[in-house]
Structure formats: C-alpha cells, structure tokens
Design a protein that fits this description.
There is one protein chain. The protein is of the alpha/beta class. The chain contains 9 helices and 12 strands. The strands form 2 sheets. Strands 2-1-3-4-5-11 form a 6-stranded parallel β-sheet, with helices on both faces. Strands 7-6-8-9-10-12 form a 6-stranded mixed β-sheet, sandwiched between helices. α2 runs parallel beside α3 and α4 crosses α5. The protein starts with 11 loop residues before the first strand and ends in a 23-residue tail after the last strand.
Amino acid sequence: MTATTTLAAERKLGVSMPILAGPWYTAILYGIETKAEELGYDIVVLDAGGYSNVDRQLSQVQNLITQQVDAILVDPANPSAFNGVAREARGAGVPLIGVSSPIVASDVPPDGAVSSSHCTLGEMMAAGAWEILPEGGGIGVLAGPGGAFWAEERLRCFKENVADSGIEIVAALSTDQDVAIALTTANDIIQRFPDVKMLYAADDTYGIGAARAVQQAGKCGEIKVLFAVLGEAAQDLMEQGCVDYVVAQKPVTIGSQSVDLADKLISGRAEQGEVRTISPVAVFPSNLAEIDLTEIRQPSGWRPSN
C-alpha cells in the first residue's frame, strides 16, 4: 500500500509496518498522515502483510533507503532481525524512528522512537487483573504474534506483576494477528478450561476475538476479558458488558509525534536517540464515557489515502 499526502512536497518520509489491518494501525496512520501533511511531507507507506513476513519488511525498508527518503518510521516485526538494515540506514544517513516500539533493532540504538512502554502496559494490565480477580483464578492468554517485541514485553511484565496474586495462566498461545483466529483460539481455551476466570489478550484484535467468544458462550461478566487498545469494536463490546478492562494506548498521538520527531531529527532540532514515551489510560466500564478519544482513534469514517 502506498499513501501520499496532497502536498507535492519534495520532502518524503517512509513508513514500514508489519501489518496494516486492524484499528490500531488505522489510528497510527491517521496520526502520521495528518502530521505529515501539516509539515509538508509526502509519505510512502509499506505493509509487509503480517508479522511472519520479516524478510519482506526488511526488503521494504531497504527499498525506502534506496529511495533516499528523509527518514523512515518503522514498527519492526522482530527487532532481532533488523540489525543489518539499521546499520545500512545509518550508513546512508537515513534516520530510523521506532513507531510504537522503543527499539528498532536489538543491537543498534534507534535514531529516535515514540512509544508507550510495553512493560508499563503489562503492569497496568496486571493491576486490572488484580482488581477484577482479587481472589485469583485461572486465565487464558492470547499472547499476540510470535516473536513480536511489543507482545512479548507486555506479557513478560504482566506475568511478573501477577506472580503472587493467585492468578494462574492455564494456557498461553501465540497466533497471527487476526480477529477470526483469536475467536477460535479463545473458544478452544474456554472449552478446554471450563473454569477459566479471565482471558488476557495482547491487543484489541485478539481482545475482540476473545470477547466475542465469551459473548457467544453466554458468559459475559462471568469470564472477564482484558486487553490493550481501545478501538470502536472494543468500546462496543465493553458497553455490552463483554469487556471488563482495557489499557488504552494513544496511537493517534504516537503516529503524530513520530512524524514530529522525524522532522526535528532531519533538521537537527532533536537529539539523536530521543525516545518519547506516550502514557496509556486505564479504561473500565465505569469511566468509559469520560475517556478523550481524540488521541486514541481516528475520526469516524476516516481511511488512509491510496
């Protein structure tokens, strides 16, 4: 997918994402596109088509380097695989900015990054789990895409913070980032572990699948559901009583701030290696109506440019 702003600017930013399907990436792209247009950048957006397509994403980043874009905003599918291309970009003088990831490559510091702390997200999800299940119980985990830094870091910190809570993980599965697959996975967990008290989901793609599985089983409110990211479907399911807790990141702000940081790095107005941390918001049914959605979600009906 290629998206270009309406301004015929000479300046150009590359955007590399492991996947563009889902509400999270739509919100990210809204923040990127609107800020790029404001600052006078064309953007080239490339979609690797899934977290398993690491080689394709690497090739796409290399292509952006060859195009001599002014900077590349990247959400790396697997930072361990990005060391070579990160060194290539640095040698070409093309800044790499992590988008929703504080790192781009495991061994090469990023030129800049804008992200929530994924460990903080895991800690906040653990705090919500403690509150919802004060006496503990078994939980099933939809862990996210295998090898994805954000998913692994989120779950690692969640586990550390529920270690003494009486909460026991009875199943943990990594799958492709797809609502239908998440629905099937959650159904399998519910059937295998009929006494499960909660489903943890890495983000709202997995969380929507989990909540729909609980809804189909007629167990909304009985089996609790918690996850990160507050998209429209997540909000609807919370309003229906089938989602109990969401840690809402601010993808619109993350996307916008990533372009702002790239612009400042290009012009020498930001320090090399600057990392901006965007704090998430805890959302329960009780405070859902009070949440400011402008940093969380694109306007209704907005779609990325083609």
